[in-house]
Amino acid sequence: MATAAEQWVLVEMVQALYEAPAYHLILEGILILWIIRLLFSKTYKLQERSDLTVKEKEELIEEWQPEPLVPPVSRDHPALNYNVVSGPPSHNIVVNGKKCVNFASFNFLGLLDDARVKAAALASLKKYGVGTCGPRGFYGTFDVHLDLEDRLAKFMKTEEAIIYSYGFATIASAIPAYSKRGDIVFVDRAACFAIQKGLQASRSDIKLFQHNDMADLERLLQEQETEDQKNPRKARVTRRFIVVEGLYMNTGTLCPLPELVSQRARRARQCSGAVRGPAHLRAHGPASLVARVAVRGGDAPRGCCADRLDRRAPAAAGARELANAPLLESPFSVSRACSAAPLPDHVIEDIDLISANMENSLASVGGFCCGRSFVIDHQRLSGQGYCFSASLPPLLAAAAIEALNIMEENPGIFLVLKEKCERIHKALQGISGLKVVGESLSPAFHLQLTDSTGSREKDVKLLQEIVNHCMNRSIALTQARYLEKEEKCLPPPSIRVVVTVEQTDEELERAARTIKEAARAVLL
After folding, report:
1. Strand ranges in 71-181 using DSSP code E only, listed in sequence order
2. 60-75: buried (b, 16+ CB within 10 Å) or exposed (e) per residue?
3. Is the pTM of this model over 0.85?
4. Which of 33, 307, 453, 519 has the most CB atoms at less than 10 Å from its CB?
5. Does residue 330 sit in helix, strand or coil?
6. Which of 149, 172, 121, 153 lies closest to 364, judged by CA?
7. Cα(477)–Cα(480) distance, rounded to whole angstroms?
8. Does residue 451 contact residue 458 with C-beta atoms inside 8 Å?
9. Closest CA to 254 of 302, 206, 312, 214
10. Quick one: how far is CA 351 from the chain centroid?
């Protein structure tokens, strides 16, 4: 039977060949010949070897001009002409051999040179040694690390905390640990460089809204909601995040956090089948909105003070008295004496992640994230800075713990700092040619040119002349520095002024007077 069937098929093929049009047969024949040619022809031609003479080789070498590995940099570039500090950058700092009052370092609470902090670090140094020589998952976890995480979690009134060995890497690792390709992140345009690098690593879809403009954020959310209605299936699996700073390092302004949280809740209630999870809002349906608020505070190496909302006790500084927008950053409290209503606890609970660093008020190194346990535990397996970097040296962890002890024992230190911030902020008003940018309670704010020359390079030189003028009069200031080609939204040039509790009222007045004199001498 099988043989008969095969013969029948062969007969049909021959019959079809006879009935096929002539052009069809010609085309098939050409294709068969082409395939045969490709099979037997060589894909390349062998070229005869040509050996160069010694003279020809030398001529080619002399003619060859290698391209520079990096673009040329002027010798007067600020990065190549840095100031050299001798001794600790505490209240009084020795810069290039000259003693000055320090208005440049982020030693807000004056703990950098504190005897108790240094004693704790020294005791830890004798017990554990200098470093760890391994990440947390590979014999890099010391008992002092666990003690610090426990203390930070209690201090911030959260379930759990995780520490990193580098402040910049904290938020830059935390963001891509949660947000992935295809997710959507709504970010304030004034976000610091560490947040930008974290967003870049996440490969998510980034949507920027105007600085502290909740109406613009609402517009972006509405546009996204319209897009979600066009593709409900995709919308159900797309996560959305809101990333902001508590106190913006580039502007010195506060984030309207309660408005953000209420806006998220309001939009979630508008969606059908809204379900509130343990640490985030997830709304299901055609207009689904999975919104998260990740609050990122300033990074000390680049220019913003580290602030947090102190919610421990009414006697503590910053006891939930911040008006409209709290500071949720590394352990440093700022209170605002006003009649505004206290910030409800549920606002803090609705924030999925609080990221901060320990390089400011804690006078240590590294950073931390805190929140609910299941949120933090995810970073122990996905936070690149946590998994692949050597853990924080034990002596620095011990120093941070002692700094926390001092802050809890002396909460009045925050009110002292607040008063000093308001004093110098008021004293610097009305400077000819300069304007103060930042909140009056911010211990790190900016001085910008009132009228730009139109050239960033010229603006930087004018501001540097003011800095040099103040330096010659024993007031140490610095310009805010940025990677100009890397910044997503490059801030204008500015002089950064940092206030600490160690600065006396007389020194604050002298600094304000010196800055005014420098502005008149340079700009008028």
Report:
1. 85-86, 92-95, 98-102, 160-164
2. eeeeeeeeeeeeeeee
3. no
4. 307
5. coil
6. 121
7. 10
8. no
9. 214
10. 17
| Furthest CA-CA distance within the chain | 113
Continuous segment of H or E residues that includes residue 403: helix 394-409
Task: Answer for the pair 287, 216: CB distance below 8 angstroms, yes or no.
Answer: no
Chain centroid to Cα 340, Å, comes to 30
Residue 188, strand partner residues: 209
Token code pair at residue 151 = 């203390």
d(C-alpha 172, C-alpha 383), whole Å = 9
Q: Are 394 and 145 in contact (CB under 8 A)?
A: yes
Three-state DSSP class for residue 476: strand
- pLDDT band for position 299 (50/70/90)? very low
Q: Helix-strand-coil percent breakdown of the chain, rounded to 5?
A: 45, 15, 40
DSSP letters for 172-214: HHHHHHH--TT-EEEEETT--HHHHHHHHHHT-EEEEE-TT-H
- First-to-final CA distance of the chain: 109
For residue 436, CA distances in Å to 297, 324, 338, 440 come to: 21, 21, 22, 9
pLDDT, one tens digit per residue, over 302-361 is: 223 333 323 222 222 232 233 232 333 333 333 222 223 344 555 567 788 999 989 988
Tens of pLDDT along 378-393? Answer: 999 999 999 999 999 9
